[in-house]
Design a protein that fits this description.
The complex is a heterodimer.
Chain A (H helix, E strand, L loop, with lengths): L13 E10 L2 E11 L3 E6 L6 H8 L7 E6 L2 E3 L4 H7 L1 E4 L11 H8 L6 H14 L15 H13 L5 E5 L7 H16 L3 E6 L2 H7 L2 E6 L2 E6 L6 H9 L17 E10 L9 E9 L3 E5 L6 H9 L10 E3 L2 E2 L5 H6 L2 E4 L14 H9 L6 E2 L2 E2 L1 H15 L15 H13 L5 E5 L7 H16 L3 E5 L3 H7 L2 E6 L2 E2 L3 E2 L5 H8 L10 H5 L1
Parallel strand pairs in A: 3-8, 3-9, 6-7, 7-8, 13-20, 13-21, 16-19, 19-20
Antiparallel strand pairs in A: 1-2, 1-4, 4-5, 9-10, 11-12, 11-14, 14-15, 17-18, 21-22, 21-23
Chain B lengths: L1 E6 L5 H25 L4 H10 L5 H26 L7 H18 L9 H27 L3 H21 L33 H19 L1 H11 L1 H6 L4 H28 L10 H11 L4 H25 L4 H22 E6 L11
Antiparallel strand pairs in B: 1-2
Helix pairs in contact in B: 1-2, 1-13, 2-12, 3-7, 3-8, 3-10, 3-11, 3-12, 4-5, 4-6, 4-10, 4-11, 5-6, 5-10, 7-8, 7-12, 11-12, 11-13, 12-13
Classes of the chains: A alpha/beta, B mainly alpha.
């Protein structure tokens, strides 16, 4: 499909030479050299904060490099912005979609193109491209009706319509079911066969080993190595990413499953906003000593369920949510905390913490309900600071000073603080959403271990996660959320990727034959 | 070359302290240009504005008298603004407080009532201010009406209501038809602190309010609640704080302080109820709150500074025939610069020199 340029055999399509990006004194990218060749699926590996996003934003013209240069087909390239990058043939699919919910697929695509073609021609081309690549889309549907996988398809098709020589994908499989991810890999293989190059950002190592022929690993803003992932093991890749061996997470032996500590009875809840998900007849029973996982593609009601369990949204009927035998559906979040419940939301900054407030104040945020932090309306500063110190010590929170602003911590350290803040209150029930989302591997291991230890001490733990590997690692049972329904939990030992993937796509396990029809 | 605003990693505490000073500096430069355009010598004019009032004891007392309502109202407004609630109607709450307290003064006039009158007037003023402020707060919580508009519009209601009272039912029969009540009885008057001076008990009350607000915001869970609801509303809800209750509470507190300031002004320096008891204290206090960085001690300093501009403005009118409205221009420019300089707390300026552009190569 592309005309191979004569020089393409000998010069890389894109080359960065000593590419450096400085933010103040912080080096986000430190002298990075990468060669991208045509017909290559090149993985960019690294932990959060390793500099992956900065590097691809520079290549896409969103960020101006502080030093070093880029060469495009052998010639020096200075980009004025993303539209120049696009006109040269560089496309990008972001992790966070930039789509307007109330516009149709075609309208969204039209907004993203710089083209001068008529809307009708564009729509026709949209259908053509989406059919050619096996990414079916109905141009007339409004985005809010679409699943996350379909929304990603819009972004990919929009990028492909510009006929790019080089496509950047930022963690594309993070929001997909395993089956959807497989479909995406077929598309990427096809792009490669057509002579295009793909830069694939991920931290899922198995995926990279399967798909990519080259991998560049970044750590702390520096390039650590460029290697062939097929000749590496997942462990050796992880070691290069983290710079150390990652501690194995171990479940405590002899964990006792005791009485039900969190019971949800036929919970139904209308959404707050018109595009939200309605919770439909959700029931679950969670025992002390047990970790129950909730899998599912984002946006299937997990946020709504968290709000209903935490009491940020109240249910009409008290009996729908029961903590330790106390009907709590009508209770506020503070009253639920007094019953021994603790909550860790998905969003660290702005939901779990007030970003511009100190850690001690953020300890007070959830601790004021049920601890010695408040006496006669006055805040006991010593108690809030001691919570910070204990969380710091127990969960290895790294920070520049004793009591910094929450926003100044890295994602992993802030998450360790948030989880620590709740666990130190010895909760009877912990409801945690995406415990290790965007967290480096070291911190993720600490957090998962903490959840296992908490369950071992007799608490009930409910974990919502999109990371199936994480759920497999720490849970006893896994249920799947789809369109506001919660499936029956499967024992984790029986829950293989295929079964979970089908449930995540909305089919029940008894009707596998129809799975693809429903999922599409 | 390009000038860009770049986000800082952490908010700068230095700039947070320095930014009001930068704002004052920029305001003075702008004012000098304005004075020059008016044909006045900027140096002389600035001297009359900012130096002369500090040189005699009468003016110093007068600054404290003017600062008293500014600080009290400013503290109340800062509680609202910290909670991200926008009470713009303190002027109306000030007037209603003055009216409510004056009612008792008018009713007890010449009845030989005891020393309970003045404290009761202060209480009435505070309660009335709080109730008046609750109108926009309830409209916001119940109907989602913008508190900025409703609180502002209620200023004019209060203004005209006061006007009606002093021209009608409460007019002093012996007042030659001037729109004013009779002079309040001594028991209905806020006492002066120094015999023969103008400084009155209200200044002490203002200092107590500053101290109370410092404790409230720094040491109590309620103060934390106010700050966290304003700074991160979703986190506040997660913390279990009810923002609707807080809207009502902060409006009521700021209304009470404005109402208290109103009755103190009437029962103190003015001595009777009449139109024009406020040169716009309720609006100037908005500037005081921001110039003081929504911090009680900062508001105390900012209140004294803005009071200085009132006194300086009067003196400049007498000495140099500079119109009194220039003071309002000054205050407006100051607020503008204060808000503009605040962006420097979270952002910094940086010059960017792009490398020379190369021809587009092969596309």
């Amino acid at each position: 499909m592309l005309d191979p340029t004569p020089s393409s055999q000998h010069t890389p399509l894109l080359q960065t030479i000593g590419l450096t990006k400085r933010y103040g004194t912080f080096l986000a990218n430190d002298s990075i050299d990468i060669d991208i060749w045509p017909r290559q699926i090149h993985a960019l590996l690294g932990e959060n904060g390793a500099g992956k996003s900065t590097l691809v934003k520079t290549i896409y013209g969103l960020v101006q490099p502080s030093d070093g240069e880029m060469r495009w087909q052998g010639e020096k390239m200075v980009l004025s912005g993303p539209s120049e990058a696009r006109s040269r043939g560089i496309g990008m699919v972001f992790q966070h979609f930039s789509l307007f919910d109330n516009l149709t697929v075609a309208e969204n695509v039209a907004l993203g193109l710089d083209g001068k073609e008529s809307f009708k021609d564009m729509s026709a081309r949209l259908e053509e491209v989406s059919n050619v690549y096996g990414l079916p889309l109905d141009p007339k549907r409004e985005v809010w009706q679409l699943s996350v996988g379909e929304r990603q398809r819009i972004e990919i098709v929009r990028a492909l319509m510009q006929n790019p020589k080089f496509l950047i994908l930022d963690e594309p499989t993070a929001v997909l079911t395993p089956q959807e991810a497989d479909q995406l890999f077929v598309v990427l293989e096809r792009l490669k066969a057509e002579g295009r190059a793909v830069l694939y950002i991920s931290h899922k190592l198995e995926e990279v080993k399967r798909l990519c022929d080259t991998a560049t690993i970044l750590r702390g803003g520096k390039k650590i190595s460029t290697c062939n992932p097929q000749q590496e093991t997942a462990a050796s890749l992880a070691r290069m990413m983290v710079g150390a061996d990652i501690k194995e997470v171990k479940a405590a032996a002899g964990r006792k499953i005791t009485v039900p500590r969190l019971v949800v009875n036929d919970l139904c809840l209308e959404p707050d906003d018109p595009h939200g998900v309605r919770l439909q007849h959700i029931s679950l029973e969670l025992m002390g000593g047990e970790i129950l996982g909730i899998a599912g593609v984002a946006g299937n009601g997990q946020d709504e369920l968290f709000a209903a369990l935490s009491g940020e949204r109240l249910a009409q009927d008290p009996g729908t949510v029961i903590f330790d035998g106390h009907a709590a559906g009508h209770l506020t979040i503070t009253e639920r905390r007094r019953l021994g419940a603790a909550f860790v939301p998905e969003e660290r900054l702005g939901h779990g913490t007030a970003p511009r407030m100190k850690l001690s104040e953020n300890a007070l945020l959830t601790g004021h309900a049920a601890s010695g932090m408040v006496q006669h309306g006055f805040v006991n500063t010593a108690a809030t600071l001691s919570t910070v110190d204990r969380a710091t010590e127990t969960f290895d929170v790294r920070k520049a000073k004793r009591d910094p602003e929450a926003a100044s911590l890295s994602g992993g350290n802030l998450q360790k603080f948030i989880v620590g803040r709740e666990i130190l209150r010895n909760p009877a029930v912990l409801v945690v959403s995406q415990p290790t989302w965007g967290v480096d591997a070291g911190a993720a291991a600490v957090i998962r271990q903490a959840l296992l230890d908490l369950a071992a001490s007799g608490a009930a733990v409910l974990v919502t996660s999109q990371d199936l590997d994480e759920l497999a690692e720490i849970t006893d049972r896994i249920a799947v959320m789809f369109h506001g329904h919660l499936s029956e939990p499967l024992p984790t030992a029986d829950a293989n990727r295929e079964k979970l993937g089908l449930l995540m796509g909305g089919s029940s396990l008894t009707q596998k034959e129809t799975a693809h029809a429903v999922g599409a | 070359m390009q000038l860009v605003l770049e986000k800082r990693a952490e908010r700068s505490t230095t700039i947070a302290l320095v930014s009001p000073l930068i704002a004052i500096g920029l305001t003075i430069v702008t004012m000098s240009i304005l004075f020059a355009i008016l044909g006045k010598n900027p140096i002389l004019a600035l001297g009359v504005y900012f130096i002369d009032p500090l040189t005699d004891s009468y003016s110093l007392q007068e600054i404290a008298v003017k600062a008293t309502p500014l600080v009290m109202i400013g503290i109340g407004l800062s509680l609202c603004y910290l909670a991200n609630v926008w009470n713009i109607g303190a002027e109306g709450q000030f007037l209603i407080g003055a009216v409510a307290g004056s009612w008792l003064a008018v009713k007890t006039q010449g009845t030989g009532a005891g020393y309970w009158v003045m404290p009761a007037m202060l209480l009435l003023g505070a309660v009335a201010g709080a109730l008046y402020a609750l109108i926009p707060a309830i409209c916001k919580v119940r109907f989602g009406a913008s508190e900025i508009l409703t609180s502002l519009m209620l200023v004019y209601v209060a203004d005209l209501f006061l006007d009606y009272l002093v021209r009608g039912p409460w007019r002093d029969p012996a007042g030659f038809n001037f729109p004013t009540t009779a002079e309040f009885d001594p028991v209905a008057t806020v006492p002066v602190l120094i015999e023969g001076g103008r400084l009155h008990l209200g200044a002490i009350i203002a200092l107590l309010v500053v101290a109370a607000a410092t404790v409230l915001l720094g040491k109590t869970i309620k103060g934390f609640e106010i700050r966290v609801v304003g700074a991160a509303p979703r986190a506040a809800r997660f913390g279990g704080f009810n923002s609707d209750q807080l809207i009502l509470l902060t409006f009521a507190m700021s209304g009470a302080l404005a109402g208290l300031a109103g009755i103190i002004e009437v029962a103190g320096p003015v001595g009777h109820l009449q139109p024009g008891i406020s040169p716009g204290y309720g609006f100037t206090a908005i500037i005081v709150a921001f110039l003081g960085r929504l911090n009680p001690i900062g508001i105390l300093i900012a209140g004294l500074f803005l009071a200085l501009t009132f006194i300086g403005g009067e003196q400049a009118q007498i000495a140099m025939k500079i119109p009194l409205d220039v003071t309002k221009v000054f205050q407006g420019i100051l607020l503008f610069y204060v808000l503009a300089c605040d962006s420097l707390i979270l952002y910094r300026f940086r010059l960017i020199f792009p490398s020379p552009k190369v021809s587009s190569g092969t596309a």
